Amino acid sequence: MANDREILREIWEGKLPICFRLDSEEVADVREPDPFYLMVPRLSYFPLVTDKVKRHFVKYVDSEKSEQEMWLEYNGQPLKWHYPIGVLFDLLFDKDEILPWNITVHLDKFPDAEIFRFSNKDMVESYFMSCLKEADVLKHRGQIAGSMQKKDHNQLWLGLQNDKFDQFWAVNRKLMETTNDTEYFKYIPFRCYLENGYKQKLVKPVGDNGSKRTLQDLLNEMFPDQPEVQIKTHGLIPPLDTPLQWLSEHLSYPDNFLHLCVV
Amino acid sequence: MSLFNPEDPFEIDLISITERAAVFNVEIKRINAKMDNAIMSYKDFVTYIEAILAISNSTSDYWKLNVVNDNKFLTKKQSVLLENPEDINERLIATFEYHVVYNISYAVPVLCFDVWNQNGSRISLEDYWKYNKHLRDFNMHDTLTQTDHPALNRPIFAFHPCKTHEILKGFARTSKNPIVSWLSVVRHFVHLELLETYIKNC
Fold first, then answer.
1. CB within 8 A of B27, min separation 6: which ones?
2. Model confidence over A80-104: pLDDT tens digits?
């Protein structure tokens, strides 16, 4: 069980400054809209924090398009906003740029072959909970998430949505415990991101000889031909000798997955 | 050995009960062992989908085997007339593309699909839900979700895999091809046609 609580809180409090601008081709008003600035939690998802952004820009677009769904773009790519915000940043942010992160807002031509459609918060919740359950299948054969009540699931979701660390962790700590007299999860829930998507594999936190496996072991398994590969998560490059079990308990996102971006 | 002792109709044959209980326990253990086996390895998944492909090829059905980034999966395209069960005048012709993919975390097959209407635009999850009477009794968000296609890394609709294991368990002892058996259960939700030949061979 996670015991370095101050680390959990540091990770939880990670925020990013973002500058949203409406795509100039979609401006139908004589006035150019002001950009919209927000500090957003790294652990959250864009569809949870951008209601205000849409309200700000919607009055500047063609009234026929004002009912359309918003989507976001960076460097010519639609943002896959089912990834947590911090993952998108670590994966895509151009090192030569300075903060804030400049993101283009669109209210037209939703690219539904490329990104998830989140018409309402229920759809984000459904996606988030399905990730969390999948993580628990890997860690505990799904037994902990499966035995939780609806109110526990709600508490996890509301804790994330309302940025309430204590509310979230009061339930999440159960998902981070180990069961059956072992100090390890069955498998480590993680996704390893490359530019065009992510890979998953079944990786155990402990070796056959009982030794703790490390981030280096995970990367060797994922990329056997690339001994030099490094990953970034939460803006950090964790040391390669960090034990996987510790990483999973402390540096997982709220969906209980480690999201590791190859740098 | 009967449960009923004719000498004394009220004295139940206890030995027989214990024996039966023992037999029952062995049976449960055997089923449980099988249940654990209902977890499907990727290797088994490939064997089963290749068997489906072989039948498809021999019956001029249209399943295709795809290999992308070391992931194998089946696809099939099919057009279907959808009717709104609450208003039969509301109809549309939908084109489905089904994908049978492997989920590594759950170790089960997953049925995914894209669905377009005739003008080529995608049908939303909510609209799709409205046209299917089989889905009425289920909560949409617990049943269907958007997911990342494991090989193509793009969004696709999918049945949530958390129930699949239970369905597979039911066929673990009897089916030669659990993927076909499972498809025969879930296909109604997505209007997927499955020829008799597949069922006969599983």
1. none
2. 999 999 999 999 998 899 999 999 9
Q: β-strand B64-68 against A71-74: which pairing, if any?
A: unpaired
Contact call for A117 and B125, based on CB within 8 A: yes
Q: Are A142 and A133 in contact (CB under 8 A)?
A: yes
- Residue A115 touches partner B, C-beta closer than 8 Å: yes
Question: Phi-psi category of A85—alpha, beta or left, where left has phi over 0 and alpha has psi -120 to 50?
Answer: alpha
Q: Count up the domains in chain B and report the number.
A: 1
Of residues B104, B126, B155, nearest to A116 (C-beta): B155
User: Which residue ranges form the domains of chain A, and what is each CATH number?
Assistant: 12-106 (3.10.20.620)
- Give the ipTM: 0.92
Q: What is the pLDDT of residue B22?
A: 58
Instruction: Kindly give the confidence (pLDDT) of every residue in chain B, 202 residues in length, as a single tens digit, with 9 standing for 90 and above.
Output: 444 444 554 444 555 555 555 555 555 454 445 445 567 999 999 999 999 999 999 888 899 999 998 899 999 999 998 888 788 788 889 999 999 999 999 999 999 999 999 998 999 888 888 887 777 667 777 788 899 999 999 999 998 888 888 888 888 778 889 999 999 988 888 889 888 888 887 7
At A59, the amino acid letter reads K
Partners of residue B104 in chain A, C-beta under 8 Å? 200-202
DSSP letters for chain A:
----HHHHHHHHT-EEEEEEEE-GGG--SSSPPPPEEEEEETTS-HHHH-HHHHHHHHTTS-GGGTTSPPEEEETTEE--TTS-HHHHHHHH--TTS-SSEEEEEE-SS--TTTS----SHHHHHHHHHHHHHHHHHHHHTTHHHHHS-HHHHHHHHHHHHTT-HHHHHHHHHHHT---TT-SS-SS--EEEEETTEEE-----SB-TTSPBPBHHHHHHHH-TT-TT--EEBTTB---TTSBHHHHHHHH--TTS-EEEEE-
The domain spanning residue B78 has which CATH number?
A: 3.30.1460.50
Sequence-distant (≥ 6) Cβ neighbours of residue A162 within 8 angstroms: none
A·B CB contacts under 8 A: 51
Out of B141, B145, B153, closest to residue A197 by CB: B153
Residue B83 counted as domain residue = yes
The parent domain of residue B47 ranges over 42-200
Whether residue B175 lies inside any domain: the answer is yes
Nearest to A233 by CA among A216, A257, A213, A251: A251
For B56-189, list the strands marked E by DSSP.
64-68, 71-84, 87-103, 108-116, 144-148, 155-159
